[in-house]
UniProtKB/TrEMBL annotation:
Residues 7-425 form the Enolpyruvate transferase domain. Keywords: Cell cycle, Cell division, Cell shape, Cell wall biogenesis/degradation, Cytoplasm, Peptidoglycan synthesis, Transferase. This is UDP-N-acetylglucosamine 1-carboxyvinyltransferase. It is an enzyme of class 2 (transferase). The lineage of its organism: Bacteria, Pseudomonadati, Bacteroidota, Flavobacteriia, Flavobacteriales. The gene is murA. It comes from Abyssalbus ytuae.
Length: 436
């Protein structure tokens, strides 16, 4: 179990460049299975989850060539389909959430797709019904081995269909889209998720020869094609990392510039941080956060009632930034209710912040009220364990703002999604070391 030691209370300064988007990368990497031609992908983040998926693809027989930092060429022209029945695959598949998205492409191109119950954060129930209901609508036969938690779908040929998804699942929509692009005839997906991750995936598939319209909306129409070809794709900057760095700057009252953020793809993220009173300046395609010497004040609603920040499927606010929002609010002037609607176990990490001296009432598993300190009292350093990726980074931000030296265990959770985080934070002045 890896550990960070963090000496808090120091000001940071400088520029930080976001990595390529983790959740986009997981979709895009699975899409290389849809063609026998070469697919080159740039700006792939060097993070644990992505590297696990690249290993899985390699074990499946995908030829992989590294072109330089973050750039790889993949060719899925001669796959080892027997790997899908192996113990090794069950092990590889379980190690991350994103592995679920190999099922759609394999089903569409080879008539069968399998996956063990995938891993990822333990942040509440994470069902897969939407994925498999979609495949069944496209004509696949579904089976599930309850003892082994092993899922399978098979179909000699998929047929386009109309479907109204029971929820706008991010990985579910990606999976169904990747199956439908090679189905016979037209597929309509209503209540589709439409995060920038999915928009990027659809644009890439269209460049490969797919016919997807409605990209960016919750109504996708897909005309199936016989075959897809190769392409080159570049990942967007990771919007969750960008939000994490906004929170980091505010809570440590540091001046930071976040480079090349792709503003047009950030949706509500800047606005939601502004509601906490954080000043966000747009400088070209960079975000500049000035040092918040006077702190930051949470806005109320027009009628004077207390602000609520909650998650919703895109273009709503992403659930992956609510832990950061909650943490940053502990030093704001004012109060806020944080409502995590999607996941039922993602707020339990607040007990660590409470240990550090934060004023938080966990109302129920989904809602927490935060009463900010306005920097009149700083958080106290402590020893903690990172329960999930975003709670992990939130605790890291709290530790960097706290007085004294904190210890964070189980940092593998953070490494799942943040590239070389300790080195990048040291480059802007953070006192953080990795100890094993
Ligand atoms: C690898 C990857 O891309 N992971 C992301 C993906 O996970 P993932 O695709 O697994 O998440 P889903 O979108 O399927 O669902 C997330 C949770 O929200 C619930 N739900 C979803 C849609 C909806 O309209 N109503 C609703 O309540 C689901 O029941 C589930 O508990 O999307 C999540 C939601 O943005 C993010 O937290 C994860 O970081
Ligand atoms: C929940 C997340 O990841 P995963 O879906 O991979 O567990 C996340 O990125 O915040």
């Amino acid at each position: 179990m890896g550990t960070f030691k963090i000496e808090g209370g120091n000001k940071l300064k400088g520029e930080i460049t976001p990595q390529g988007a983790k959740n986009e990368a997981l979709q895009i990497l699975c899409a290389v299975l849809l063609t026998e031609e070469k697919v080159t992908i740039n700006n792939i983040p060097d993070i644990v989850d992505v590297n696990k998926l690249i290993d899985l693809l390699e074990n499946l027989g995908v030829k992989i060539q590294k072109n330089g930092k973050g750039s790889y060429t993949f060719q899925a022209d001669d796959l080892r389909m027997d790997y899908l029945q192996s113990e090794r695959f069950k092990d590889d598949g379980r190690r991350l959430r994103g592995s679920i998205m190999v099922v759609g492409p394999l089903l569409a191109r080879f008539g069968k797709g399998y996956i063990p119950k995938p891993g990822g954060d333990k942040i509440g129930r994470r069902r897969l019904d939407t994925h498999f209901e979609g495949f069944i609508k496209l004509g696949a036969k579904f089976r599930y081995n309850r003892e082994e938690h092993f899922y399978g779908v098979e179909a000699p040929k998929l047929k386009g269909a109309y479907m109204l998804l029971d929820e706008a699942s991010v990985t579910g929509t990606a999976n169904i889209v990747m199956a439908a692009v090679l189905a016979e005839g037209k597929t309509t997906i209503y209540n589709a998720a439409c995060e920038p991750y999915l928009q990027q995936l659809c644009k890439m598939l269209n460049r490969m020869g797919a016919k997807i319209s409605g990209v960016g909306s919750n109504l996708l129409e897909i005309e199936g094609v016989e075959k897809l070809g190769g392409t080159t794709h570049t990942m967007l900057p990771d919007m969750i990392e960008i939000g994490s760095w906004i929170g980091l700057a505010a809570m440590t009252r540091s001046e930071l510039t976040i480079k090349n953020v792709s503003w047009n793809d950030l949706g509500q993220i800047p606005e939601v941080f502004k509601k906490l009173g954080i000043i966000i300046e747009k400088k070209g395609d960079d975000i500049h956060i000035p040092a918040h010497k006077e702190g930051y004040e949470i806005q109320n609603y027009i009628d004077g009632s207390i602000l609520t920040i909650s998650d919703a499927p895109w273009p709503g606010f992403t659930p992956d930034l609510l832990s950061v929002i909650l943490t940053v609010a502990t030093q704001a002037r004012g109060s806020v209710l944080v409502h995590q609607k999607m996941f039922e176990s993602r707020l339990f990490f607040v007990d660590k912040l409470i240990d550090m001296g934060a004023k938080i009432i966990l109302c129920d598993p989904h809602r927490a009220t935060v009463i900010g300190h306005d920097f009149k009292s700083s958080l106290k350093a402590t020893t903690m364990t990172s329960p999930d990726i975003r709670a992990g980074v939130s605790l890291l931000i709290a530790a960097l703002s706290a007085k004294g030296t904190s210890t964070i265990h189980n940092i593998e959770q953070i490494d799942r999604g943040y590239e070389n985080i300790d080195e990048r934070l040291r480059a802007i002045g953070a006192k953080i070391v990795r100890v094993d």
